[in-house]
Each structure stands twice: as C-alpha cells, then as structure tokens.
Amino acid sequence: MLVAEDEQQSVLTATENGYGKRTSITEYTRHGRGTKGMIAIQQSERNGKVVAATLVHSDDEIMLITDKGVLVRTRVAEIRELGRATQGVTLIGLDEGAKLSGLQRIVENDANGEPEPGADDTSTSSTENPQ
Predict the structure, then answer these.
(1) Residues 6+ apart with CB under 8 A from 21
(2) I want to staple 10 with a disulfide (CB 3.0 to 4.6 A). Which of 22, 47, 70, 92 is the partner?
C-alpha cells in the first residue's frame, strides 16, 4: 500500500514489458476495507504484469532494472502523466527475452551527506496481479 504525503505526488506504475505511467494521486479515491482496490494501469499482453508502483514527485529520478542486469536512470518529469485507465508509455527499451524486474526512486543526499527528510523506500514490487 502506498501512502501519499501530499497531493503533488504521482503514482508511478511499471510493467514487466517496460511500459509504465505516472498518474496524479488525486485520481485515486479513498475506499473502505470491503473494496477490491483500484486499477492503476491496464494490463494486457503488450504490458505484461505490474512489477512496481511507487510515489514520486516530478523532480525525482528513478532507476529501472531488468532481469538481465541492465540499469537505466531517468527523470520522472520525462514520463507522461496519464489517467488510471490507460496502458502507459515505454519506460525502457528491452532486449529480446528481457523483462523489467523493478524500479527504485532515487533520493539525492543534501550537502551534509544526509538523506532528505521523507526519503524512505516507498516502492512496492510484486509478481502478483495487484487488481
């Protein structure tokens, strides 16, 4: 479960075939305990399964990693913000047979070498269907 600190954050969702998207946190409404959750990204043969979701700000950077050990660092601002009911855009170009295995929000240290406040690990990874 992701818990937003403020409404300026977005949910970044990534799938195993290298697709993903940012969605404003305001598009996710509160639900009671009896609900089955919300769809964050449309799953399809093109996208594959959801591998990660994390809260980000537009000025953050993320690191994407494949099961073949390829790392790609990118700025969150370069990822289009889309609605919840869409399939997303290409986050990383994958070689034949490769899968995206996860992503991590990169937190820069301040001038003293200390992590910025609130710089905890907020990403979740799962091979299960989060729907």
Answers:
(1) 12, 13, 41, 79, 80, 81, 82, 86, 87, 88, 89
(2) 22
Share of the chain above pLDDT 90, in %: 46
pTM equals 0.74
Over residues 76-86, the pLDDT tens digits come to 999 988 877 78
The rounded distance, in Å, linking the Cα atoms of 124 and 103 is 9
More confident residue, 46 or 30: 46
**Cα–Cα distance for residue pair 46/27, rounded to 1 Å:** 24
Residue 52, pLDDT > 90, answer yes
Fold classified for 10-119: Neuraminidase (2.120.10)
| Pair of tokens at residue 63 | 């690191």
Q: How many residues are given for the chain?
A: 131
d(CA 108, CA 94) in angstroms, rounded, equals 27
Rounded distance, CA 26 to CA 8, Å?
Answer: 9
β-pair type (19-24, 10-15): antiparallel
Q: Let me know: does 107 contact 115? Beta carbons within 8 Å.
A: yes
